[in-house]
Amino acid sequence: MATLNPATGRFRLPARRRAAAGGGPDPVRAALAPLLAAHRTAHRAGPGRPGGLPARSAEAELLRGYAVAERMHRGQLRKSGAPYITHPLAVALILAGMGLDTTTLVAALLHDTVEDTPYTLGELRADFGDEIAVLVDGVTKLDGSRWGDRAEAETFRKIVLAAAADLRVLVIKLADRLHNLRTLRHQPEHKRARYAQASHELLVPFADRLGIHVLKREMDDLAFAARHPEEHEATRLAVRAALSRAGPTFGPATALLRPSLAEHGVKARVGVRPSHLYAVHQAFGGGLAGLRPCEAARLLLLVDGSTADCYIALGAVHAALHPVAGQVRDFIATPKDNLYRSLHTRVISPDGDPFEVIIRTEAMHPVAEYGIVAHIRDAGGDTGPTVAERRDLVWLSRLLAWQSGAPSAEFLDRLRADLAAGHVAAFTTRGDIVPLPAGATALDFAYALGPGTGDRCIGALVNGRLAPMSVQIRSGNVVQILTDPAGAPSEDWLGFAVSVPARLHIQRRLALRRAEQEAEAGRRRLVRALAGRDVDLLAAEARGDSLAVARDLGYSDADAMYAALGTGALGLDDLLARFVRP
Ligand code: MN
Questions:
Q1: Ligand 1 centroid from CA 115, angstroms
Q2: Residue 116 annotated to the active site
Q3: What pLDDT score does 406 carry?
Q4: What is the 3-class SS of 82-95, one letter each residue?
């Protein structure tokens, strides 16, 4: 392994040229050159970005992390035949390109060591400290042989839990998945489709919910290519053909737009922004023939100014190009629950084609592209924000609130459903936004306000009108929940509760009530049987006999034993013998 001298370790020329120039080629430094360069570029001091990196210590840490990872993975190969280390290196490079901090990059270099090599978490902690150990442990899979079918669900739950303390865990996991998708062609075919589908169902929506659209778009398209290669290729060709004709469509529109923006006193950059392939596929599916430029791209306006200037820009757009009625969506006043902020509108181009225009400030742009990553970057230092600090990540904090009580299989199923559903935003009468999964009902709204409100919910006022709990809530609805102090969840609620926390809570309450009823029934049976033998159960309970018998039989308490008696899991005769002394 190469030893490094940070004092001489300044990298100037590409490794190839350095080697050619006769400077002793250092293989570690050469392998790491692109990563170091990307990391330095992302953290160059610039407008609104003071400082930059403490370059030498950052480099030394990366080189040290790489050296350990390379040594531990040495001899292991990827399915492509490349040395395994190329994978963690690529993951770190993805993260460096997104501007993540040194700690995250070192953790990325080491992210598979504990899982796939003899390197232990203890050694990692001793070598690299707590912070990196927490990140690596967070992305380390639970052992499949030990956890069996539950491994996937438990692993994901573990990642989400770790993300509660440090969101960078999730970002590393997503970059890991992105690189695995990029190299998916080396996997056997049956694995490819399954892996791609799992990505579409879980990781891609997760990236979307965290607002990391750069990762989302690429993972989306890679998974699309793996699952439906022919449709992917057809979409690619159709989009390419459409974009080649973008000039005639967007050119005249832009020509009208620029003077209008100037008249309104708005400074903005105007650009054509292609949609990603999977989005086009989802929108047009089989009807790709004659895909029009306006169907394959949108116009993006980056406003050099304040939030208010976005609304002025919107007016300027509508003054220049006829708007399609009812197509303005204001994700500034009502943000999505993934940090995304922009105005969307649809206008008619001079040649009669409707297309979408997106308006946001330059400051909103990085967050619209990088979501939570932009916030992690801005937080600076080497501490990732916790979810508690990110109050705008409503969805993630909800997820963390309910994951702890969910059985793992249910957790994953419901998470998939929640991610797939999209979302609506309703309001309380005080004007607070309540984000809900699509298809959510007044009952879900009630549970979103708190479990106590949900449990006692008996009806709702939707936009001032009385409605049953099962009524579907739409975006923009103002909802008031009616409660009854004596109210309680019932079995039929599961027929129309849609959101994960509501369903889990109702199921828990129902299970609890069932257990109580079973315990009552069991205890009544025992009381009657003992009465015939002149034993008073109440007195036995007071002496602690009942608890002793329960413990003896392996139950946590007397109620658990009574419940077993109630369901018939425990025989009455077995129990009587222990209470009735000969
Ligand atoms: Mn990996």
A1: 9
A2: yes
A3: 58
A4: CECCHHHHHHHHHH
Q: From ligand 1's centre to the CA of 116, what distance in Å?
A: 9
Domain 394-506, what fold?
Ubiquitin-like (UB roll) (3.10.20)
**Catalytic: 218?**
no
pLDDT top residue among 139 and 574:
139
Q: Residues within 5 Å of ion ligand 1 by Cβ?
A: 112, 176
Kindly state the average pLDDT of the residues 388-412.
61
Architecture in CATH for domain 29-212: Orthogonal Bundle (1.10)
Q: Which residues pair with 545 in a beta bridge?
A: none
437 has a pLDDT exceeding 90? no
Domain 245-363 has CATH 3.40.640.10: no
The whole-angstrom separation of Cα 276 and Cα 299 is: 14
Distance 174 CA to ligand 1 centre (A): 10
Cα separation, 454 vs 506, in Å, equals 9
What residue segments make up the domains of the chain, in order of their start?
29-212, 245-363, 394-506, 512-579
In DSSP notation, 212-230 reads: -HHHHHHHHHHHHHHH-HH
Name which of 22-36, 121-135, 142-156, 553-567 the model is least confident about.
142-156
> How far is the centre of ligand 1, averaged over its atoms, from the C-alpha of 112 (Å)?
5
**pTM for this structure?**
0.70
